[in-house]
Amino acid sequence: MDESILQKPSLSSLARHLVTRSPMGVRSAALCAVLVFSNLPAIAFAQTSCPGIHVRILDIRNSIGAVACALFESPEGFPAEFLQFATNIMIIKVRDTQARCDFLDIPPGTYALAVIHDENMDGKLNTNWLGIPREGYGFSNDAKALLGAPSFEAASFSYDGQSLDLTIGLNY
């Protein structure tokens, strides 16, 4: 027998045959199945966010300057003396009035966060002559500043070493 008669159809001709000879519903279902199964490994093996304290900063007034996040593990120096007493400090440039601070490799314990929007990037929270902040500030647990900064205890939270997502709204 002639081998050219017994040749198997190529993959492209088989696909063309299925596309042109199958009803529209079958083609749509097949396409959907291909898309789902092609993304299955990514979905099945997707990792959760890295262990750490992930802080999303809300209510940033503008995109000028940077946001400084200071993580404290004790009341000493909280919140004003962050350069000297904070366990970790992260400074992030504000982009589109958004910022996020991610503290990774943090051991379990009790912590408190202080955040400032340092618009003029001078490394401190600027105040007026009465001591009222002119730049944005916020604390974990949405601790309020009444006639001064809140206490470490008011802003403290427990961290178990896993992934913790926090949001801190700024006050101006």
UniProtKB/TrEMBL annotation:
It holds the Pfam family DUF2141. This is DUF2141 domain-containing protein.
